Amino acid sequence: MDPSRVLLGGCLLLLLAPSASPLSDPCPEPCDCAHSQHLLCANRGLRAVPEAAADDALILSLAGNFIANVSASDFSRYGNLIRLNLQFNQIATIHPKAFETLPRLEELYLGHNLLTAVADGTLQPLTKLAVLYGNNNALKKITPTMFSNLDNLVKLRLDGNSIEVLQDSVFHSLTGLHYLHLEHNKVQHVHRDAFSKLTKLRFLNLAHNRQSAVTNVLTFSQLRALTTLLLSENEIRHVGNHVFHNLKQLSKLSLSNNRISHLDSGALRGLSSLRELLIDGNELEEVPTGLLDPLVRIERLDFSHNRLTCLNSTAFSKLKHLKVLRLRNNFLTSLSGNIFALNSVLYDLDLHGNNWTCDCRLEELKRWMSAVHSQGKLLTVFVQCHQPATLRGKYLDYVNSSQLQPPGNWSHSCKSGAGPEESRGGGVEGEKRKRAGQEVEVQGDQEVAETLSFLKGTETERQRSAEAAAKRPKGRRRSNIIEKADPSTTAKPSHETNTWPSNRSPVHSGEKFDLLRSDQEEILPVITDPCVFNRHFITNVSVDEVTSDTVTVYWTTRDHHRHTSGAKAALDEIHFRILFDRFGTPDRFPRYVYALGAARSVTLRELTSGVTYMVCVEGVVGGAVCQVAPRDHCAGLVTLAAADARRGATLTSDLQLVTVATLAGNGVLLLVISGVWVGRSLRRRLQRRKSAVHVRHMYSTRRPFRPGTASASMAADFTSYQSSRPTRLAPLEEGDLIEFPCDRFLDSCSARRDGSMQRFSD
């Protein structure tokens, strides 16, 4: 073969190689192309759009670079792009023809740049565009021609700009739009026809703008598919009649944190599908009659942080599906007792932070709260008294009905209804309190009602106990007599820290409790005090059958009798209250379930999956409750995660088997480790014995030194030591022998033990 021809062929290959490499590798040099059709060029310090070697890329990510301008030819070789991400750059201008070569583009992200305007026609070639992000720029104005030909657009984000006006028919080309974000702008004026063509719009966010009123009935009239409308954080002072009339599909409306002082009575007309209305953080002083009646499906209603001073007794009467009602931090002083009587599914009622006047006008409300609590339908409601001064800081739940006196300017007294009295301390029935002329001392703090009170027994009871003791034969066993209530059982721990309050001393319920009756030889103890019952008669609280949202609580009790006054009174059963509360979380919500006296188990429902709960069992004696400390009659549990709910039935038995197997494995492992340790210890001792050389009959400090038998090479320290001791003859003893470790004097431990000192030379 001719060498010149070989050389010529090699040169041709070298010349063709550089031109062929770009075709085989379409990825630009600074980018990462793990997928052949996804060019990842984000955060590469680029200042211009890189050139592509091929046009088959579908996704191009240029986010987080320093690109300042987009020219007409930057994307000329990216004709097949479906997604283009230009967010977090420094783009200030885009050439009107920059996107002409991207007819297949479906997603365009231009957020977090420096755009002040987008020229008309710039987006017109993007006929298939479905998602457009222009958020967090400096856009001051948008025009109808800006979005022309984008009838396939589904989501548009323009939030975080400086838009002040929404012009007439500004979105008329976006007939397929579903989601529109306009929050965090400076919108002061919305033209009545700005949203006229958005018949498919579902979500509209206009929060954090500068609107002062919502009064035009045409503004939202065409948004018939809208489900969420957010108008919070504006400067709205007035909402007119029928402004939401055509929003038949709207399920959430937020007017929070505005300056609304007045709502027309027909402002909420047409919202028949609304499920959540947030109007907290405004300046409302009243709720007009009939305002809430159109909200027939409302489930959540928030009027917190307003200036409400009163509520009509029929304000919520038409809201059959209301579950959550927030009236926190208003100026309410009283509520009608039947204002919530028709809200049968209401379970979360927030009345905290009002100026409640605890007089007899709240007695019906107190009775209603006790009734729904006993049925387990309502979370704990905190109604903290502001007036009168004697009850200030105390909670309505724990105030006696006898303490709810008529107001000073009334000429008649309120009617008192029957109902169980509930307090955090023990006590006898309400009738007994009235006859004794004593009132329960209620104590409260800012976070939770705490009451620690015990009534002293009446003179009649003490006299009856004394007579029974006189009739009792001598030598009778009095093991069931409780002299005084133990202070450790009556003091209630702080609700927040579960520690005992240092500034409170428990009040005992009498000089003694006689738990024996004199008419029978063997008699069951008689219970008059709930704290005594909790301490001595409730046992074995446990939980079982834990699922993602239910748990069954079990307990047992010792035998007892319920004490009643009067010869004809029947023995009342002692009932139980089961408290369950989230444990270890700042947002707590104690709930109660009441059980009959014969019950020894309760199934708690509507729990949250994967949450830790504390469950306590408390006795109810004569309508009075004594809350137990967290360490007494309480149990902890963790509900199953939602994904494990199907396995909840078999989880308990599986856990027991796993526990037994783990304990057995640990025991075997401990035996093996112990055996290895003992074996190694014995081996070390044997090795030490074998390696030690005991020098016997070689040298004694108590024998005369014989220089003839010593070598001249003997260590000088032995000679000096011997010379300082008196020479005397004595029999050789084991304690007189000097032992030298083998490795100090010898290279090998196999030397003879012949008594010679020659081998021990330093």
From TrEMBL:
Chain residue ranges for the region called Disordered: 407-509
Polar residues: compositionally biased ranges: 487-506
A GO cellular component annotation in the UniProt record: plasma membrane
Keyword Chloroplast (UniProt): no
Protein name listed in UniProt: TLR4 interactor with leucine-rich repeats
InterPro entries named among the record's database cross-references: Cys-rich_flank_reg_C, FN3_dom, Leu-rich_rpt, Leu-rich_rpt_typical-subtyp, LRR_dom_sf, LRR_TM_domain-containing
CDD domains tied to this protein: FN3
Origin: domain of life: Eukaryota
Domain LRRCT: 354-407
Signal sequence annotation: 1-22
Keywords, ordered alphabetically: Leucine-rich repeat, Membrane, Repeat, Signal, Transmembrane, Transmembrane helix
Record field: transmembrane: 657-679
Cited PROSITE patterns: LRR
PANTHER family: ANTIGEN BSP, PUTATIVE-RELATED (PTHR24369), CHAOPTIN-RELATED (PTHR24369:SF210)
Bias-annotated ranges (Basic and acidic residues): 421-438
A Pfam family this chain is assigned to: LRR_8
